[in-house]
Design goal:
single chain
Length: 79
């Protein structure tokens, strides 16, 4: 099993699970990007593992998307 990660980090976002939480929240991705103080393009790159979320952004997403369960947090952002 390869652990190579070309972006230099070890974290991977579970795109499908994160998108399900976004959909459930009712927030548009444009609004989420605004709350994170990033562009929609940057948000898309982060969701699709082209670059990593910052720890501060992850904390905002926990609150914004009402993700409280630590197992779910790990599944989404530390897959």
């Amino acid at each position: 099993m390869s652990t190579d990660n070309t972006d230099g980090g070890g974290r991977m976002t579970d795109t499908k699970l994160l998108n399900s939480y976004i959909k459930k929240s009712g927030f548009k991705k444009a609004k989420i990007a605004e709350k994170l103080s990033i562009s929609q393009a940057s948000l898309s790159k982060k969701i699709h593992n082209k670059c990593e979320f910052k720890q501060s952004e992850i904390k905002v997403l926990y609150a914004l998307l009402d993700i409280e369960d630590s197992n779910e947090k790990d599944r989404i952002f530390f897959a």
